[in-house]
Each structure stands twice: as structure tokens, then as C-alpha cells.
Amino acid sequence: MPDRRHLWRGIHDPEMVRRAIRVNVDAPARPLRSGETLQVGISVANVGAGHYFPTYVTPKVTVQAVLLDEAGAPLPASLQEAVIGREVSLDLSQELFDTRIAPGDTRTLSYVQDVPTEGLRLRVRVEVDPDHFYARFYQATLAADGADKGKAMLQQALDNALAGRFVVFEKIFGGTTAAKVPTANAEVDGG
């Protein structure tokens, strides 16, 4: 809320989200060693939202850490994820979890992974799915076959919701220097 004005851009605006959070990754800048146990702290701080991040049940923010091979392909067995958000059942009757970050607070996640071979790097990414709840609702409705007349509209709404995902932070560690991906947050700490 710049200058205490709500401009209604919110979670759908990547730049607004980048200004609301600060990501710090405590990872080695040196090459990763085969056989070592990598222990990395990943912190996401709510530094500018002015309210819980994210605010309500619709969005989901995912923090991902994964080892990459020499070609840059992820090693699926090394993927670890944590969700920042508030998830409720589709009928809104039950809260499933609430891991949102209060204003001024920080959530720290630990990535612990054995490094199986030489030449690997670590990628840390923060991805925003601004319409996560809606996508779940559209998928469930389409799967129930209860929307014959509106099926095309629901499918379009689902496609739009899925297309709205974006990355607000991505950085690769473990080479001679930490590589910053163009979508990375300008206020990144650590490395």
C-alpha cells in the first residue's frame, strides 16, 4: 500500500509482491561438494504488505528449493517445497492450514539435502499463484460434470487462473558465484 493508498494491484502484480517481501537465502556461493549435507535457511519477510502476506484464501505462495544438474535440469528427488498461504476447503467450511506471514514477521524454511554428485547447484524460487483457490474450484466443478452449459466458460476461467502464476524470486547457488535469474527480487539478501 504505497503512501497508504490501496491501488488494488495486490497479489496479481509481480512488482507489488516483490516490494511486499524480502527473501534471504543462507546458501554457500562455493561449488557444492559430493557427499556433503547441504543445510540452507530460506527466509521470507513481510516488509511491505501492511497486512498478512498473502492476505486472504485465494492466493498461494510456494517456496521451492531443488538441486540442478550440470545442464540445469532439476533433480526431482531433491525438491522441497513450503507453502505460504491460507487454505480452506472448497465449500469454505474448514480451514486446512494458515502459514501466512504477519506484517513485519519472517518465516524461515530449512532445506536439508545430501549432495549426491559433483557439479550440482541449488535453485531457490518463490512462485505466486494468485488465483489458486479459484483454480481448485473450477477444476472440482469441471470434474463433477455439473456444468454442461457453462463448461467452456469454466474451462476458460481455469486456463486464465493457471496462466496468472509468476515467479517473484529465483536465484541459483553453488557455482563460483551465485547466479541471479532475471525475475529475481531486487532486494535479495544472502548468497
What's the shape?
Answer: globular
| Overall radius of gyration | 18 Å
Largest sheet: 6 strands, antiparallel
Q: Tell me which CATH architecture of the largest domain applies here.
A: Sandwich
What letter string, H or E per element, gives the SSE order?
HEEEEEEEHHEEE
Taken as a percent bin, the fraction of beta residues is 35-45%
- Note the quaternary state here: single chain
How far apart are the first and last residues' alpha carbons, in Å?
A: 29 Å
Report low-confidence residues grouped into runs of 5 or more. Answer: 177-191
The structural domain count equals 2
Q: What is the CATH topology assignment of the largest domain? A: Immunoglobulin-like
Mind telling me the CATH class of the largest domain? Mainly Beta
Structural class: alpha+beta
Number of strands: 10
Helix content: 10-25%
According to CATH, the homologous superfamily of the largest domain is Immunoglobulins
